[in-house]
Design a protein that fits this description.
single chain; 679 residues; alpha/beta; six-stranded parallel beta sheet; 47% helix
Amino acid sequence: MNTDVLDGLDPEQREVAEAVRGPVCVLAGAGTGKTRAITHRIAHAVRSGAVEASSVLAVTFTTRAAGELRQRLRALGAPAVQARTFHAAALRQLTYFWPRVIGGEAPSVIESKLPVLGEAYRQVRKNPDRSEMRDVAAEIEWAKVTQIGPEDYVTAAAKSSRTPPIPAEDVGRLYEAYERIRRERHLIDFETILELTAAVMTEHQEVAAQIRQQYRYFVVDEYQDVNPLQKLLLDTWLGGRDDLCVVGDPNQTIYSFTGASPRYLTGFSVEYPNAAVIKLVRDYRSTPQVVDLANLVIAKSRSPHRLELIAQRPEGPRPVFTDYDDEPAEAAGAARQIRKLLDKGVDSREIAILFRTNSQSEAYEEALTKAGIPYVVRGAERFFERPEVRQAVVLLRGAARSSSGTPLAAEVHDILGGVGLTATPPGGGKAREKWESLKALADLAEDMAAEGADLSGYVTELERRAAEQHAPPVEGVTLASLHAAKGLEWDAVFLVGLTDGMVPIIYAETPEQQEEERRLLYVGITRAREHLMLSWALSRAPGGRKSRRPSRFLDGLTGRPAPRPRTPVAERSQVAAPVSCRICAKTLVRAAEQKLGRCATCPADYDEALLESLKSWRTATAKEAKVPPYVVFTDVTLQAIAERMPTTEQELLSIAGIGRVKLDKYGEAVLALCRDVQS
């Protein structure tokens, strides 16, 4: 038996790799090497003879992830294993069997719902903007993946606490019109691909038998993101068999709003009682400081399925918490810190600014442009679908047919120079984005030239990357939403805009929605390998009322903020760590509650004798000083002292409302009263 494929795996990864048959559930935390574990498992199963390579179907969610699986499997000696997305695997089967069991041409696949949905809008006499149409398309996708038809949408949306962008009745009518137009024009969208494949297998047993004969062993990555429609297709593929390995992280369930359900992952051992359940918790990505913060954030989750990571990397810098007066100051502060990282040698491609909504991007684009720092916005248009990239690939493909023999890098630079690549980048906006795209193509050519590639090989590599949506790295700081950042990692991560109302987002009202927002912050934290900066702005615009507060998910997690560079007070102010109730852990907003260190409604645990002694002492002291009693200490401060019973000056100073001046005046007397009660 070949065992070299198991070399270098840690004990838990090796356990995954050696579990080659039967139902297997791998609970894999962020940065724990899950892709390594499952690819080595597949390769070991094939090389040991436990399974046939052609009988394995590895399924994941993105074309890029599928491409990475194929690349790793090729390197491990298992090139015949199929690794595809749900949609790609289903479409391949549907296209093959359509002429045989249905007849005629297979329907055409639409990449976007918007053109058909636009026609539906016109039929119901509505005039939408493009943003509204995208939101309605997302609602239709949610309904389809959860197997809800147009006639049931209104009831289902209310039951699921959906907040559609327009009245639910209008969404239902548009959904009905969309489906009618799609069928009339012989079109299928991504959800219909899965529906029809499952239906063809269910209605035509000979089709099901052939597919099940072909694929006998299944691996599903990111299983926490599976939706009901994908689960239906997977069950149809399996046909009652149990050679299934699923991999997922309950801490990273952040797509419930799209219909994804973590219950398939967390309930796997219920569905398959004889399943092997293996946990990967050794984090090889992040420093102990980053891992500790991630663990603290997720520890307050109510989920019983959360994973606690164990850091494997050496010590690193502490996460930095900073508040700013306003949003422009926060963006400028991030740009300054990025400039310092760049000056220290951190590559701009290894830095990311992550935010909750795409609308937050603009301020950071402007701040980075002013600072002369290149950036790329992720999650917008796909790299290989950008007009300048498509134009460049056409030109490069044509040049490859009659290459002049010029060195690769020089030839590519000449070609790209004709469509906008210049020696220095333009200032910003669309021109800068176009330049960054062309520069990424040129950089890839230089990398491949160093390996001896020619123009033909370079074009072949571009075509492979386009098929797998594997964009070349673009020079510049990444700007992305927290959702778009999942699955990625950087040396330095800036988590910005961390205010209540943004993280968690204001419309996250139910406990389940709040929990998902917590997991979203966890995902953001675990993107960082070494440097992690978290920040928030106290007001939206300069001079605005500073009424915002940091995210409740940071309550009690920061201690005192880590040391920060000195900057003008107008641009940045220090903030004390958020205060949590020591009894129920709820965030304390009111000053009186912060002094007490607990909610007003939580049970008090003060010593009544001490409180009476403190009040008597305060009355006498105030009378002697000829001031009102509250000038000495308020009732709330006295109650806080009675509850905490400090015995040292430091403990007394930790109580809100007691500073150095009052400590010098009254500290000795107060501490004496506390010691008397305790003795």
